Structures are given as C-alpha cells and as structure tokens.
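ok new one. same drill as before - structure tokens go in, u give me an amino acid for every spot. 385 of them this time. try not to just spam alanines like last time pls lmao
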C-alpha cells in the first residue's frame, strides 16, 4: 500500500494548497467580486475545490484504514490459529500448557509494536509528502548569489549606471526581454524612460535593483559590477517607487520608516512634508499613529503613492527610480511633487519611467525603450517631450 499512500497523501496536500490559494486571492479581491456580481461563480469554485478535497481526504483515510486494518486482521487470525493449533497439541500431550502460554505471551509482545508501527506508517507517509514539498522549495537554486562580504560603494559616488551588452529572459528558450542593452545613465542627472507596455521597463528596474542577474553582459554602478557589490548596501543606495505599492498594517510612522529604522520622528515628518502627505496625516484623530489598514485600504491611491515617495525620501538614496509613481495623482499635485523631488534629489541620479509627458519636465535625457533596447530620444534640457 506504500505507493498508494504516497499518491493520495500528495493529492490531499495539493488540494489544501489550491483551497488556500483560492481564499487568499478571493478575499483580497472581495470588493471586485461583489462589484461584478461574481459571488455565485466563486462559490461554485469553492464548492468544487472542497468536493475534490473531501474525496481525496476520504480516499486517504480509507487507504490508511486498509493499510493498518488488514495487517491487524491477519495478526488476529494468526493468533487465533496459534490458540487452535496449540490447544490441539496440549490436548494430545505434545505441548505443555505452560509452553503454549509462554508462546502466546511472546507473540503478543512481538505483534503489539508491529501493530503500532503499522498505525504510524500512514502518518509517516503524509509527513514524507509534506517534507518533500517543503524541500522542493528549499532546494531551489539561489537566483542572485551574494558576494561575501562584497565590495563597498564609494562614499561620494556619482550614481552612474552603465549597461554593457545586457541580455535577460525569465525562462530558458524564451524570447529575450532585454536584448543587447548598452547605455550609460550619467550620475546626478534626471533621465526619462519611455516605452510601451511589455517592452522591458519593469524588468530593467528589477535588474538595476538586482532581483535578477543578466544572462549576458554586466551592469555597473560607479565602475563596479553589481555582482561584486555588497547586496544590502547596494540596494539601500537605490530606491524604487513603483506603481505596485507595498504597505503594511500599522501606523503612518511605521510605514514611512520601513527600511530606515534609525530615522527619527522629526525626519519622518519632514519626509511626509516633502511628499505632500503631512497635511492629510495631521488631520486624522491619531495623526502619525493612525493605522493605514490592511494594504493601506484606508488611503486613496494618491495617498498611497505619496506615502511610498515619503519612504524613498527618508531613505536618502543615491539613485531614485520612479516607475509610474505619480500615475494616481492629479496634474497639479504631480507638478508640485515632481518639483519637490527635483529639489530634494537635484544632485542624485533620477530615473523616471512614465507615460505622462509632464513627468519628464526638466529631464536631462529621455530614452526610448523598444524591443528590450535603449536609445536616446532627445538631449534637450528643460524641455517637455
């Protein structure tokens, strides 16, 4: 029964994973599900998942009972046979009664642990399957190996980024997302990056933040290959404000200070003022101690983006990357905020990724990204494309 036990245990674990995944996704999107009146459809999906889980769980239980019950029944039959055969031998005088009692006593001592082991075996198989799934994740190769201890960044770095023949794709034999990208992002300048959706802009950001390494070529920061730099120190020097915001359950102070643990309350307030979020916070009953809710649900889209920008301002990075960071802001607020960012990061490298022309006002260089490559579009300073 060993092979059957492994199969049914694996199916049960897979069904549990499917139900958990369904609950995480559906509960986080409950407003949208209600908005499109899809409750009945999601209920049917959950019922189907539960039904499959119940069937496989019942199959696992029955298999476990068979795996333990049949051997137990055979042992009981064998013990009965011993008594029948032994009783006949005692009656015929070929075996003493004391020898029969001693034999059956030893037999009970032998079969007891065996029955206990048979009862534990199904549990062992379930544990084995669970451990195999855990080890499958734990044994995944590290995508970004760390250089220990790694090179330190220069104290007065310019923030120059150089791409040297960079190629990257997410899967083997797939098309290249980044294809032979070679360009220099000059330090201390404001660079805009234009491009249609899907041309590799977000992938480029992930490479600059070293969530992935290029398959070919190299990316250098102030002359040093990113692979040779201390990973934590390098990431602290590059702040990314993305349209995919990440907020945590807690106060405004906790969220703004996230990633800058040693910042004082005064520095948190100054960062919020720079992001034009201070007035909203102090208007709340608990001020900076107010809870932002799960995933920042108590905030508007614009307030979330301003909080993310405040977090980047507090980090005081060498390089600031804005990936559609002002998409949820109105034109007037965006203009004020971008002017404030230009003032705060006037001597830092800024990489602005946006589809809105107003975001590139005052850019030193505007790049066009197409088919995974970068090419300059204009060098006109202080001109809006």
């Amino acid at each position: 029964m060993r092979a059957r036990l492994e199969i049914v245990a694996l199916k049960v674990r897979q069904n549990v994973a499917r139900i958990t995944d369904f609950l995480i996704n559906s509960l986080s999107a409950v407003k949208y599900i209600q908005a499109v009146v899809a409750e009945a459809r999601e209920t049917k999906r959950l019922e189907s998942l539960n039904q499959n889980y119940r069937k496989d769980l019942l199959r696992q239980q029955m298999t476990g009972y068979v795996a333990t019950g049949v051997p137990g029944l055979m042992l009981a039959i064998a013990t009965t046979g011993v008594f029948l055969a032994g009783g006949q031998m005692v009656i015929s005088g070929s075996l003493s009664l004391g020898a029969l009692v001693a034999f059956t006593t030893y037999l009970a001592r032998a079969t007891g642990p065996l029955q206990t082991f048979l009862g534990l075996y199904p549990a062992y198989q379930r544990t084995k399957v669970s451990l195999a799934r855990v080890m499958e994740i734990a044994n995944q190769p590290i995508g970004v190996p760390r250089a220990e201890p790694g090179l330190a960044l220069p104290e007065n770095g310019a923030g120059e980024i150089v791409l040297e023949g960079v190629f990257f794709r997410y899967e083997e034999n797939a098309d290249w997302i980044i294809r032979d990208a070679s360009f220099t992002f000059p330090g201390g300048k404001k660079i805009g990056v234009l491009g249609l959706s899907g041309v590799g802009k977000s992938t480029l950001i992930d490479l600059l933040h070293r969530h992935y390494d290029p398959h070919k070529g190299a990316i250098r920061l102030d002359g040093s290959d990113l692979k040779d730099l201390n990973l934590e120190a390098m990431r602290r020097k590059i702040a990314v404000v993305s349209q995919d915001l990440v907020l945590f359950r807690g106060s405004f102070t906790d969220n703004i200070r996230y990633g800058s643990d040693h910042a004082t309350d005064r520095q948190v307030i100054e960062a919020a003022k720079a992001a034009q979020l201070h007035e909203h916070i102090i208007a709340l009953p608990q001020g900076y101690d107010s809870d932002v809710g799960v995933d920042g649900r108590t905030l508007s889209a614009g307030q979330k983006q301003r909080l993310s920008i405040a977090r980047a301002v507090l980090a005081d990075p060498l390089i600031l990357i804005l990936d559609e960071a002002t998409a949820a802001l109105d034109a007037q607020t965006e203009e004020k905020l971008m002017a404030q960012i230009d003032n705060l990061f006037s001597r830092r490298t800024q990489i602005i990724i946006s589809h809105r022309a107003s975001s590139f006002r005052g850019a030193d260089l505007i790049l066009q990204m197409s088919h995974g490559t970068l090419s300059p579009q204009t060098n006109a300073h202080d001109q809006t494309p």
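Residues 379-385 have pLDDT under 50 and may be disordered. and btw Residues 39-92 form the longest helix (54 residues).
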